[in-house]
Design a protein that fits this description.
The complex is a heterotrimer of chains A (930), B (298) and C (86). Chain A is mainly alpha-helical and 930 residues long. Among the domains of chain A are: 1-97, no CATH class; 100-329 and 629-661 and 685-779, Cytochrome C Oxidase, Chain A (Up-down Bundle); 790-930, Four Helix Bundle (Hemerythrin (Met), subunit A), CATH 1.20.120.80. Chain A has helices at 18-32, 69-72, 92-97, 101-129, 140-175, 183-203, 229-258, 271-303, 314-349, 356-369, 385-412, 422-445, 447-453, 457-486, 492-515, 531-561, 623-626, 635-646, 656-665, 681-697, 707-733, 754-784, 797-822, 825-855, 864-895, 904-929; strands spanning 592-594, 601-603, 699-700, 703-704. In chain A, α23 (797-822) runs antiparallel to α24 (825-855). The longest helix of chain A has 36 residues, at 140-175. Among the domains of chain B are: 8-59 and 99-123, no CATH class; 126-242, Cupredoxins -  blue copper proteins (Immunoglobulin-like, Sandwich), CATH 2.60.40.420. In chain B, the strands form two sheets. A five-stranded mixed β-sheet of chain B has the order 3-2-1-5-8, with no helix packed on it. A five-stranded mixed β-sheet of chain B has the order 4-10-9-6-7, covered by helices on one side. Chain B starts with a helix and ends with a helix. Chain C folds into two domains: 1-54; 59-86. The radius of gyration of chain C is 16 Å and the shape is flat. Classes of the chains: A mainly alpha (930), B alpha+beta (298), C mainly alpha (86). At the A-B interface, α5, α9, α10, α11 and α12 of A face α1, α2, α3 and β7 of B.
Chain lengths: 930, 298, 86
């Protein structure tokens, strides 16, 4: 595919040299070593040299051929590992700058396991406290923190990232892609996740961390009741986590929809990838609602808005927003586990899944339905009986597809050839646990029983059976893909020991909770008669915890002493990740994967033009056209997500730098363009976001505290803003080439290239964000009495003028695009100037209006009417500011003649700008007229 | 929403004569719980048992033959998955849907069955049934009970054998009021009012507990509930009437606990410690109570 | 050229609709009627911006469905939540 040329072209900081690239290959060598020869020094040989013996890919990749492990690893396609700036696998530096999906996947898995330990220790502290009624290892406040942060960590910082570690590693391999659509955004997701986790850890040292439960019910989540700075930090940490998730889901959705190998239609997608696809869709929408809730909560905590302290409906508003996110979250957490179960059941029974299409249909159904069941978490609130009935019905409805999935897995075992290897033991165990969790969930679906179980250990036991049941499958996934990721086999005996301890420990800790169900949740004092059950549970918790020690021992020693795994250690696997060496080479495949023949083949570059529907790849002169399909890394979604949502003002342009790059680096000689795999900016943005939010945590009620602490927070905030802003600009200006098309299957986004797809998907999540803000406003207004609510501005005219301004600016962006199509530089520049002027006019007009209101004593914190007005239109104004930043950047580039031969960046900016316009079309009547 | 509730009601109501559990909250709960527990255990044991059977039956014996039992089932060669093939399924759709239909019947009929009870639980007191109203207000960290006559206490005293209607709210954060012994529970949300009822059969001392994390004192947010013989309660209650000058209660809004259940019209935040005026309704209830207990004694 | 004309026509239309929206408020209609008219006008304007300026009309239908799904979810949240407390 590629010659081994020096990777200087696209490096960022110049440091990676040919030497580095050489070391990189050497570093990989042991993993790729012939199965017959045991590598002596486990993974970081620095003795370079013989690595290059690996010829071009041959045996390992021949179509449909079962390659014996012995011969598999030898030739590994090391040639494709031109480093492009990446230090070797063993180096720490590699993991700081990598954008490669496999490295990022490993980062996710390792970090998530760290959070498993973190959350697990908190759980053990709780279980010790619960040994007997009224024990007092922890103070009441500390116990509540342990309960809350345990929940938050396990649900957010452990479960989804753990699953997405596998998703990062495996999904591109399964769909036949070299990487995700936007590799830098992928690294950015990881670093934002890491930064948010660090922020959560820091919160413990700022007085106290959040102690209001993972559900964070209002108004306990407000400073009136949880005044510690650490509580604010925990909320902001979660906010940052949600931003990370949003970036990640946009990236995954674009990748999975656009970049599948030829023949891999959605119906044919491997099941693990299917579950991740649906998970990402649910994440996109559900987390946007949580983002809105957390932004409002942050505003309440930092700026003094009064949403959740609003007596007539603030508490319920939180419950609605939270559970609208919270119920899909259950499936977001569980679906990847289901995917692992489906894959391992097929592999270890040697059977294809029974009723595969119905299984998929059920999952799609569940994903849709998951947004219509949230009020079953609120049966005991003051919602009316009609709504209770409706949500009872939808709740039964959503349980049924799961029945089908469970039966499908069970029937797959029939006539199988079942091998109880560790991954299957965990999957099998997970299914057992999930059945128990499911049956006990039906109890909760009966509203009358729910009334009694609400707030008790029945609920605790039930969701642990479901969620930790999911963890069980994911642990199976860890064993399943461990040989692929490391190239080494774990110790099977220790794996089985782990499972035995795990399964026994699991049931010891959670089953007694059903028996002691009358214990109220989140208390450490309970009726003495229940003590024996709690003692058993505590013992079980330690057994469960200890089982992980076995796993960590096993997996870490196997890294060095494990046998070489070969390409496919399992037999009966089908998916593409097993057709490549373990670990796979940097760009995954020895050629372009295709399923044209019904099973996987790898086409060489020469055969590429033959791809159905694809444009010729790189035929000299027409560089710009030939790379039409998503060449760049598309900073746009990132820029908008970060700039618009966290308030940072710098932003990047859609693919703007990529344009320049394309111009100057387009392949001239028919040789394929190289992709980049390293960037320092995601890490830098993560650091900046961490500092920015840490600084923001010191802000309360609209101001920093006085004294040294206040000054410290103010400085950290400023520095964080600078780093974030600078890094965003740096990332935008960086030359970076992501995976380019043409791709095999892109349904349903055929013909909409990657960046554009990403922008649209991001906008869809923004619809939910604004929808939730507007929904909150409507809800509060209904609770308050719709009619008795006066709009805050006395006069709709300034708002109308702003409507005119935005509409006109939308029009001028359209004109800019038309001008670019016609190749008129003057037109582009002129239209952009008009757009910017109108946008600034909008902000100035709004500023005058706000100034007048402020003079009347109306501000964010005055009352709930002003809170909704200022916060909602303020969020919109932030979107305008972010858009202006992008527009200014584009103006600078346009004045140098950019966009004339490719107007797409203007088009994508326009999509965003028009969306902001549309939002205003609704905000205006809602806040100015009605 | 009538289009949803009406058909369900008509489906359920005719059956109400005997099948739908009614009675005290405890009786209702125990009956439904038992049925769920028995059926749930049965289904769980059957399904998991079947799984384990399959796991054993089709285990890989390592003898290289296809089909776990060595014979390959019907003797046909089984088509095993191969590396790199396009993902596909194996048939079995009919079997799948039979199982789905079975489980759907079980689940739907169970839930529909309990819906009748839900309507009963959410409903107003039956004709001629005694009921007594108490407002419950949660705060960090305790409970305040207010009787129709305006008397306010932190230990709930109630007559045995009577339906007690509670209206629950909170004056600070979200709590949840529950008395486990009587299987009653209701969210206490600031600014909202929720309704529930229960019947305490036996005199004695019980505990009310908070079921929603509400702060550092959550674990100890209990209140005593003293269930008294009705006549003793009457004596006690009669003595409280005058003791609290602000006599007047929120009883007015509690009497219309209609079928629509918890239906807090957003608005009045705290339980009305109003301006006096309709004290009569409270007294009326008390008089009726006294008369009734008298007749019971006779 | 006709493309530009179309964009201009849409722009004029949007301008008129925006003005009409405020005029409805001053027309002295019954409150709920006025509200329905005003919101309907917002939707119409949004459709024109999305359909032509964001050229959804000329894109694969999948993008329209994508945005409609988002809108639907947001509406479900708003309506169901508001209805639950009535």
């Amino acid at each position: 595919m590629k010659s081994d040329d020096s990777p200087t072209d696209d490096t960022i900081d110049g440091s990676p040299t040919g030497t580095d690239a050489g070391t990189e290959r050497a570093g990989r060598t042991p993993a790729d070593t012939d199965g017959g020869r045991t590598a002596t020094d486990g993974g970081h040989a620095a003795d370079g040299g013989h690595a290059s013996t690996g010829g071009r890919v041959t045996a390992a990749t021949a179509e449909g051929e079962l390659v014996t492990p012995g011969q598999a690893g030898t030739d590994a396609g090391t040639d494709t590992d031109h480093g492009h700036g990446l230090p070797p696998l063993g180096s720490v530096r590699r993991y700081l700058i990598t954008t490669n999906h496999k490295d990022v996947g490993v980062l996710y898995i390792v970090t998530a396991l760290f959070f498993l330990i973190f959350g697990g220790v908190l759980a053990l502290l709780m279980r010790v406290q619960l040994w007997g009624p009224g024990e007092s290892l922890l103070s009441a406040g500390a116990y509540n923190q342990a309960v809350s942060i345990h929940g938050l960590i396990m649900v957010f910082w452990f479960l989804s990232p753990f699953a997405f570690g596998f998703a990062n590693y495996v999904v591109p391999l399964q769909i036949g892609a070299k990487d995700l659509a936007f590799p830098r955004l992928n690294a950015l997701s990881y670093w934002l996740y890491a930064a948010s986790g660090l922020l959560l850890g820091v919160s413990f040292f700022q007085g106290a961390s959040f102690a209001g439960g993972w559900t964070m019910y209002a108004p306990l989540n407000l400073p009136t009741y949880t005044p510690e700075v650490g509580s604010t930090t925990a909320v902001l940490a979660l906010l940052l986590f949600v931003v990370s998730i949003t970036v990640s889901s946009v990236n995954f959705l674009t990748t999975m929809h656009r970049m599948r190998a030829e023949g891999l239609t959605l119906r044919r997608l491997p099941l693990f990838t299917w579950t991740i696809l649906l998970t990402a869709w649910m994440m996109l929408f559900a987390f946007a609602a949580l983002l809105a809730a957390l932004m409002i909560l942050s505003a309440d905590r930092l700026l003094g808005t009064t949403y959740f302290s609003f007596t007539e409906g603030g508490s319920l508003l939180w419950a609605h927003l939270f559970w609208f996110f919270g119920h899909p979250e259950v499936y977001i957490v569980f679906f990847p586990a289901l995917g692992v179960m489906a894959e391992t059941f097929q592999t270890f029974t040697g059977k294809r899944l029974v009723g595969r299409k119905w299984f998929i249909a059920s999952m799609v159904l569940v994903a849709l339905q998951s947004f219509g069941v949230w009020m079953h978490h609120m049966f005991l609130t003051s919602i009316n009986l009609q709504v209770k009935t409706l949500f009872m019905a939808t709740t039964i409805g959503i349980s049924l597809p799961f029945d089908l999935m469970v039966f499908s897995l069970i029937y797959t075992m029939i006539k199988g050839r079942i091998r109880f290897a560790t991954p299957f033991l965990f999957s099998f165990g997970a299914l057992v646990l999930f059945i128990v969790g499911g049956i006990t969930g039906v109890f909760l679906g009966a509203v009358v029983l729910d009334y009694e179980f609400r707030g008790t250990y029945w609920v605790v036991a039930h969701f642990h059976y479901v969620m930790v049941g999911g963890v069980t499958a994911l642990v199976g996934g860890l064993y399943y893909w461990y040989p692929k990721i490391t190239g080494k086999m774990y110790d099977e005996f220790l794996g089985k020991v782990h499972f035995a301890l795990y399964f026994v420990g699991f049931n010891l800790v959670y089953f007694p909770m059903f028996l002691a169900w009358e214990t109220p949740r989140r208390v450490f004092d309970y009726p003495p008669g229940l003590a024996p059950w709690h003692k058993i549970a505590t013992i079980g918790a330690f057994v469960l915890g200890a089982s992980f020690l076995v796993m960590f021992y096993n997996l870490s020693t196997s890294l060095f002493t494990g046998e070489d795994a070969g390409d496919d250690p399992w037999k009966y696997v089908t998916t593409a990740e097993w057709t490549v060496p373990s670990p796979p080479p940097l760009e995954n495949f020895p050629g372009i994967p295709t399923y044209r023949s019904g099973s996987i083949d790898f086409l060489s570059e020469d055969e590429r033009p033959a791809l159905g529907g694809g444009e010729p790849a790189a035929d000299g002169g027409h560089a710009a056209e030939s790379t039409k399909s998503g060449l760049t890394d598309g900073g746009v979604a990132d820029a908008e997500a970060v700039a618009a949502r966290s308030g940072a003002e710098s932003a990047s342009t859609p693919s703007s730098q990529g344009e320049g790059h394309r111009g100057s680096h387009a392949p001239e000689d028919g040789e394929d363009e190289h992709e980049d795999h390293a960037s320092i900016w995601p890490l830098a943005i993560g650091v900046g976001a961490f500092a920015f939010l840490l600084g923001a945590s010191g802000f309360q009620g609209g101001e920093f505290a006085g004294g040294i602490a206040g000054a410290f927070y103010a400085w950290v905030l400023a520095i964080g803003a600078l780093i974030t802003g600078g890094s965003l600009v740096g990332m935008t200006r960086e030359r970076f080439t992501g995976p380019s098309g043409p791709f095999g299957e892109s349904w349903p986004f055929d013909g909409i290239e990657n960046v554009k797809t990403g922008v649209w998907i991001f906008l869809a999540s923004d619809v939910i964000l604004f929808g939730a803000f507007i929904g909150s406003y409507v809800f509060i207004r209904v609770a308050n009495g719709w009619i008795g609510w006066e709009p805050i501005p006395h006069d709709p005219i300034p708002g109308l003028i702003n409507t005119y301004l935005l509409l006109t600016s939308s029009f001028s962006v359209v004109l800019a695009m038309v001008a670019a199509e016609k190749g008129s530089k003057k037109g582009v520049v002129g239209s952009l100037i008009v757009t910017i002027a109108l946008g600034i006019g909008f902000l100035v007009n709004k500023g005058i209006e706000w100034q007048e209101l402020l003079h009347e004593g109306l501000w964010l914190s005055t009352n709930v009417r002003t809170s909704t007005f200022f916060l909602t239109t303020g969020l919109h104004a932030l979107h305008v500011i972010a858009g202006l930043a992008i527009a200014v950047y584009m103006l600078v580039r346009a004045s140098r003649g950019a966009y004339l031969d490719d107007e797409r960046p203007i088009e994508y900016f326009g999509l965003y700008w028009h969306f902001v316009d549309i939002v205003w079309l609704f905000l205006f009547p809602l806040f100015y007229i009605l | 929403m009538w289009w949803l509730t009406a058909p369900l009601r008509t489906a359920v109501v005719p059956a109400q004569s005997g099948i739908i559990p009614r009675g005290t909250m405890v009786e209702v709960f125990e009956e439904i719980y038992l049925v769920f527990l028995v059926l749930g255990t049965l289904v769980g044991v059957v399904v998991i048992g079947y799984m384990c059977y399959l796991g054993y039956q089709y285990r890989d014996t390592g003898d290289g033959s296809d089909g776990g039992d060595g014979s390959g089932g019907d003797g046909k060669k089984i088509d095993r998955p191969t590396l790199g093939e396009l993902p596909a399924g194996s048939g079995g759709g009919r079997k799948l849907f039979t199982s789905l239909a079975l489980s759907a019947i079980i689940v739907i009929s169970l839930i529909a069955w309990t819906y009748g009870t839900l309507l009963f639980v959410e409903g107003a007191p039956a004709e001629g049934q005694q009921d007594f109203e108490v407002s419950v207000t949660g705060y960090q960290f305790g409970w305040e009970f207010e009787y129709p006559n305006g008397h306010t206490v932190d230990t709930l005293r109630i007559p045995a054998g009577e339906r007690i209607d509670i209206t629950v709210t909170s004056r600070d954060v979200w709590h949840n009021f529950g008395i486990p012994a009587f299987k009653v529970k209701s969210d206490a949300i600031p600014g909202q009012q929720t309704d529930a009822w229960f019947i305490a059969e036996q005199p004695g001392t019980y505990q009310a507990v908070c079921y929603e994390l509400c702060g550092a004192g959550h674990s100890a947010m209990n209140a005593d509930v003293i269930v008294m013989e009705p006549e003793k309660f009457e004596q006690w209650y009669a003595n409280t009437s005058g003791s609290n000058g602000s006599a007047n209660a929120s009883s007015g809004n509690a009497t219309n606990a209609t079928g629509s259940g918890a239906n807090a019209t957003a608005g009045n935040g705290t339980s009305g410690n109003g301006t006096g005026g309709n004290g009569t309704s409270g007294n009326g209830t008390v008089n009726a109570l006294i008369a009734d207990t008298a007749s019971k004694l006779a | 050229m006709s493309k530009t004309k179309l964009y201009v026509a849409i722009y004029v239309l949007l301008f008129v609709l925006a003005t009409a929206q405020v005029l409805v408020e001053f027309a002295g209609l019954e409150y709920w009627t006025a509200m329905a008219a005003i919101l309907a006008l917002s939707f119409v304007k949004a459709l024109f911006v999305a359909g032509y300026y964001q050229h959804l009309r000329y894109e694969p239908r999948s993008l329209t469905y994508l945005m409609a799904t988002g809108l639907l979810a947001a509406l479900a949240l708003t309506i169901a939540a508001s209805y639950s407390i009535t």
